[in-house]
Every structure is written in C-alpha cells, then in structure tokens.
Amino acid sequence: MKILSPVFLFFLAVIICCSDSKIKEQQYVTVEARRRVYHQGAPATYNPWEPFKTRTVDNLAGYKAPRKNKPLSKYGGWKKKQAEATGFFRTEKIRDRWWCVDPDGYLYFNVALNSISRGGSERNKKALEEKFGTPENWIRQSISILQENGFTCAGSWSDYRAVIEANKKSDKPFAYTINLNFMSSYGKERGGTYQLPGHTGYPGDAIFVFDPEWETFCDRHAQQAAQYKDDPNLFGYFSDNEMPFRFRSLDNYLALPENDPGHIAAAKWLNDQNIKKDEITDSHREAFMPVVAERYFSVVAAALRKYDPNHMYIGARFYSNEKNYPSFMKTAGKYLDIISNNYYGKWTPDSSDMADWTAWSGRPFIITEYYTKGEDSGMPNQSGAGWIVRTQRDRGLFYQNYNLALLESKNCVGWHYFKYQDNDPTATGVDPSNTDSNKGIVNNYYEVWTPMMELMKQLNTQVYSIIEYMDK
Questions:
Q1: Which of 179, 258, 417, 461 is 20 to 30 A from 156 (CA-CA)?
Q2: DSSP secondary structure string, 337-374?
Q3: What is the pTM of this model?
C-alpha cells in the first residue's frame, strides 16, 4: 500500500476545503419578485416575475449561529464591546468598520422601523381599541414586541412622543428619531409647495435655500430641539425627506422668474464663474450641486447644534441621484454625522455604491427606507416603490438578503425598514404613495405578519454575531 506524503495530504485538504467553501458560497435560495412600472395617468402595469438569488442567515458560508446571542446593553448595544461613553448616541470608526456607540459607550447597530404610529382610519381605531384598549397600552406592547424581535429604534414618522412617554416607565428604553422637516415646513409657511407621492414638491424642483428668510426661519424652527437635548434615548434628527437635490439644479433655478432669489443666486454664480448661460455644461451643473448643499446643510446644522449640541444630525433621507455625485456628498458630509439614504430598486445593495457614499462623505450611512409587498396579503399593492413578492416568507428572505449586504459593507451603521403597519385602503387624505400596499410588519388589525417577522428576528438578534463573523 502506497503511503501519501504529508505535503500531498496538506494540499489535498486545501483543495477540498476550497472546493467545499466555493460550494457553500454559492448556496442561495431563489425568490421571485417584480416591480410596478409607472406611466403618468396610465393603469398600473408590472414587470414580469424574475428569480433573484437571495442570501440568508442559514446559508452564510462558514457561519454558525450562536447558542446564545450576544449580551446586550439596555439600548440594544453589544455589551462586551465598549468605547467612550458620552451619555448620547454617536458614531466612531474602529479599525475598518463604522459603528454607532450607545449612550453607555457600547458598540451599537441601529435596527429601526419607520412609521410606528396608530392608523387613522375608523377600521384602525376600532382594531386598536379591541386589541390594546388604550393608546398607552398599544405603544407599550408594540415596543415590547419589537424589542423581542431585535428592533431597537423608531424611525421617521413614528409617534416619538408616545415612545418618550413609554420610555419613562421602562428600564429598557427604545431609541427614537425626529424629522423636523425644515424645508417643507418653510415651504408651507412661504407658499408654493405641493404634495408628490412620498414627499413634498417644490416649484421648478428648486428648494428655497437662497431665500433671504431661510436662515432666520431655521433658527426659529430649530428651537423646538432644545426640549430633547438632554434625552439620551434620542438617536438623532432628520432635517427633511427626499428633497430635489438635482443634477440639473442650476437649470432649475435659472428657469425660475428673474426676481426669484433662487434665480438671482444661480445667475450670480454663473457670473462669478465667468460662464454664459448658453455655455453651461454638465461639469458646471455638477459644480453647482454642492453650492445648494452648502447653503442647506450649513444653515440647518448651525441651527440644530445651537439648540441641541448633544444629538446627531442624521441627514435628509436622500432618494435620487444626488448620492452618486462626489462633490455633493463631500459637502453634505461636512455637516452630517450619518448619511441617510432611501434606497430602492436594488434586490441586493450595490457594494460600490456603499463604498462610494462613505469615501466621498467621510461618514457612515443608514438606509432609511426600503420594503417589499406580499401578494398573499390580498392587498392591491399598486402604490409605492418597493418590490412585490409572492409570500410573507419571501418578504422576510428579502429582508435578510438586503441587510446582510449592508452588514458586509462595514460602512453601514443601521437600517430603517418601511414600515410598521400596512396601508389602509379605507383611509382618506393619505400620501399617494401609501394607499393600498402590504408594507407593514402588522396588518390593519395590528396582527403581526409572522412568517416575515420570524426571519426578521433571526437576523436582527444575530447582528453582532454576524458582524463578528464577517470581520474575521
């Protein structure tokens, strides 16, 4: 019998190991999904169903779920990993990964849910009374359910005042965010804004940053932040949502009436650059984007920090191509603690996008809006930008696949899933993007979509173990 040499056996083991690793790396589940095609004034149509490779916690190559999850701080931070405690949430880059740090100094990943609030329709009101009795019981029990499933924060449009009250009676506080809506509030006061699906519209897609009254308004509007400055449970402030920081902002401002402050500012910039209107190029358009950003973010940041120097400024929830321009992102990063992006159209977040956002801005990011809608909900699912999938389990599989890529990026410090409750088709006066779709983790009777939630919990409660695995 021929005895194989130790060297040969070593290389054979390496080959087998590598082959096995490759096989494991290629293990995906397949989820079918499609998206609505939008045509102005036309009936809803949809792309064909497509199969998408979908990574899950169970098929991460070489990952073994712990018998017990990592010990947590009262805020949901990683109790064995500690940095400097400041009494408030903040961010820090440790080696090659960005982190949030909770008020007690523990490393923290922000797992949030948007729109944790009571439904306004008669059906919602009746269901809440039957299930919870009072709004106080609703928020207390809802926070308990969310914490059991690994959520640690209330995202945009949540009833943060109810969260604040609930925290007063709890030794396990639930973090919250506040959207102060600087520009949209100014627009309502000034006039000229209008409702678009998902956000506020502005005349000519040009926000009012060059108005002489803008800075005074921001100082007055930011005074409300003073009442929260000492609350350790506040994660941070959004200043607005989905504003038109357009590549063609220069053209948009120049198209305004000649006596409009925006037109005057754009024309002055052209003159200062010695550029004639008929000589404008894409390079000039890109160069003007940070001019708008500088005016918006510098004014808002100064006002916020004047009245609340303790909490983070976590952005304006970018939603379009602005986040793909280095000079714009660099300017925003001068004033923000975290970049917040609403990020649709990707089954799996793009690794290049995630690297660029932080490289350009110098800041970590949070994805503040994304979701799927299940056909098995029985809802029409015609409104909104999210993917449509077959089942609630598929919604949970998407959640795992999408967020595993965020964890892998090392630049992401949180995600905010949209949203708490399904749209209610019987509700009136709602945003056009929120009329009839299965976006929630609960239905209109406050019943949890269990197959989805089970998969959300599996990932949420293992975030720190998965980060540890990914960083080895």
A1: 461
A2: SSEEEE--S-SS--HHHHHHHHHHHSS-EEEEE--EEE
A3: 0.93
